[in-house]
Amino acid sequence: MASEISTIKSVRVDALVAMRIVKHATGAYPTTVYGSLLGMEVDGVLQITNAFPFPTSTDDDSSSSALTPKNKGVMWYENEMIKCLREVNVDANNVGWYQSSTLGNFINSNFIENQAHYQSKINERTIALVYDSMRGAQGGMALKAYRLTPQFVVAYKENKFTSDNLQKHGLTYKDILQELPLTLYNSHLATSLLHQLSIPQPAPAVLPVSISSLTNPPTYPQLSQPLSTNFNALDLTIDPVLEKSCDLLLEAIDGHNTEANNAAYYQRSLAREQTKISNWQQKRKAENAVRVAQKLAPLPEDDWQKIFKLPQEPSRLDALLISRQVEQYARQVDGLTATSSAKLFALNGGIPRF
Amino acid sequence: MDRESFIHLTKPATVGAITTSPLQVVVCAQALFAILDHSLRRSPDQERVIGTLLGVRSEDGSEIEIRNCFAVGHNESQEQVEVDMDYHKQMYNLHLKANPKEVLVGWYATSPELNTFSALIQNFYASNGDGTYPYPAVHLTVSSNPGKDITCRTYISSSVGVTPDRAADSCLFVPVPYEIKYAETERNALESLSMGRASLERQVNNIVDIHSLEVGIDELLDLLNRVSFYVSQVVSDDALPSVAIGQTLLNSLSLAPKIEASELEKLFNTHLQDVLLVSYLANTIRTQIDLSNKLASATGITLPAQSQKTDHKRQRERD
After folding, report:
1. Predicted pLDDT of residue A206
2. How confident is the model at residue A224 (pLDDT cuts 50, 70, 90)?
3. B84 Cβ partners below 8 Å, 6+ apart?
4. Where in this chain does the record put each MPN domain (chain A) (predicted)?
């Protein structure tokens, strides 16, 4: 059963799970929240049928930053919850975890660690769902499914992110995460409920008598409002979101520069050490030539390894992650401008000219 | 959904009795989805399944918002009912850890029927100690019969019975009004979900931004058509005119900005150029990052000045 190559081809998210994640993420916005996903895999499709949030604080651990799936208290909570849910016929298999994010700012070492933890310890076939609270508020469903690629998992296990190693695995920043196609799924009952929710209200029997009765309809007795399209997607002022995305993009580029500078520093000090070594080797060679001429035993020529220490190559993981993050932001900005320009053209065509 | 009238009679307060004051119940869509999911997962021999409702109570207790719920196992036979109370307590504690604000407010059942067992369970949930006392416990029934509408009902209870013995296993269910509510983001999510409601597979694929834009525009066109249909009907004397509607329409129309054509052209062009520039720069950055990484893996050297150039350009553009 435990084949090394994952067979998940796509992810199917139940309406319940989508609603739970949205509620959890929105309720705690802008804090990042985490939770667990339950479900099962059927013919390459990972069906996620239930989800529950992780606690916001655990009794036995007071460190605030540790409330991620790797935390001991959280793991205990997860196991307890799954044990309980099993009794009421829920698909009690842990198939991954979810987290909220703001404008796609989730690619960091924390995310990688968590997902690596899931993919190595619990089950190879686990995924991470990322819900973007800010994009979600704009309209649509900003839910994405990710997992680590097999190459990356291998490299991560070796925990050596040097240039040589990366080349050996053929790993670039594009190969860290793999996005899986995601579908939303409604059960028959949920479909029925959705249909019912969107039945429009019948026209009132009496016509309104004044403007105020139109704009402020009587609030009591409150009736369930039908689910209707909201026009957030048509909002023309996307500039705040675009600006925030650009800010994040700039930040990521700064981070990239820092990493690049670190790498360059390493290169320089490596070059410096190497010149020192070759100088030393030449000196030793000359010395030996003299010693041979004097019929003395030559001194060993590979002593330099004891005298000089080559600088350690910094891990390239951060640079990779930052590159991936920059790419994520750039794509996002691209997507935002696409809808924005479409709306602009619509507006331009629609405004009457005088 | 169903529209009914509710009548509330506030009885004189008696000592120790559970209050039956007017109550407004708000149901979050998420809880309904969870209940329906539980209903799907019941054993074939179970008529109905029950669970605990969690939510938030307003300070004076007059409004209850049902935000979440969890399933509780139970066994029902002709003579007796058995609810897994330990399980309920354990789950409740687990839920409190994740969400301390959501407290016990009542219970749900997936059949519209109210029977003696309902009264027993209701009395447990409303009891002193583990229950919601001194607040009333809300009972939410959600019918889930195939082929029929999903109907919800909310009740609170008041005790009846001549002797304490009888009062323990009977109660009077008083229907209360409820409202299904969705927060803004939940609404967006529901909208995406309901895109799949008409399809045979009951699925939504490829959720992209441009989709929701399309749906929004379609909806807007529909509404405009409806309004213009009504207006033309009024003009041709087929529909009753209304001063209020006319005024509202006039007010909305006057919101369209009066602007010189050349001015508009200029504004449009500058804004569009900004947007396109941002898009162009984003793509350039992507290419540069790609290039930087390719060079880095080819030479082992990461070039520091790579993205600096676009960085500056971007800054200038934003200023």
Report:
1. 66
2. very low
3. A87, B72, B73, B74
4. 11-152
**ipTM for the whole complex:** 0.79
Chain Cα centroid distance, residue A78: 21
pLDDT > 90 in chain B, percent: 3
C-alpha count within 13 angstroms, C-beta hemisphere, residue B28: 25
Residue A185 to residue B98, Cβ atoms within 8 A: no
Which among B41, B98, B279 has CB closest to A333?
B279
Which two three-digit tokens encode residue B204? 């939504």
Determine, for residues A351 and B211 on separate chains, whether the beta-carbon distance falls below 8 Å: no
Q: CB of A38 within 8 A of CB of A91?
A: yes
Select the residue of B217, B297, B302 nearest A234 (Cβ to Cβ). B217
Q: Which of A137, A173, A211 sits opposite B185 (nearest CB)?
A: A137
Q: How confident is the model at residue A64 (pLDDT cuts 50, 70, 90)?
A: very low
Extents of the domains making up chain A: 2-187, 240-347
Q: Which portions of chain B are predicted below pLDDT 70? A: 1-22, 161-162, 164-168, 206-209, 297-319
Q: Which residue has the tokens 């947007």?
A: B275
What CATH number has the domain spanning A2-187? 3.40.140.10
Q: Do the chains contact at A253 and B307, CB–CB below 8 Å?
A: yes
- Pair of tokens at residue A228: 């209707």
* Interface residue A87 vs chain B (CB under 8 A): yes
Given a cut of 80, whether residue A248 has pLDDT beyond it is: yes
Who's near A263: CB < 8 A, 6+ residues apart?
A: A314, A316, A319, B296, B301, B302, B304
Q: Nearest residue of A to residue B143 by CA position?
A: A189
Interchain pair B282, A264: CB under 8 A: no
Neighboring chain B residues of A84 at a CB cutoff of 8 Å: 87, 90-91, 94
Q: Is A97 on the interface with B (CB under 8 A)?
A: no
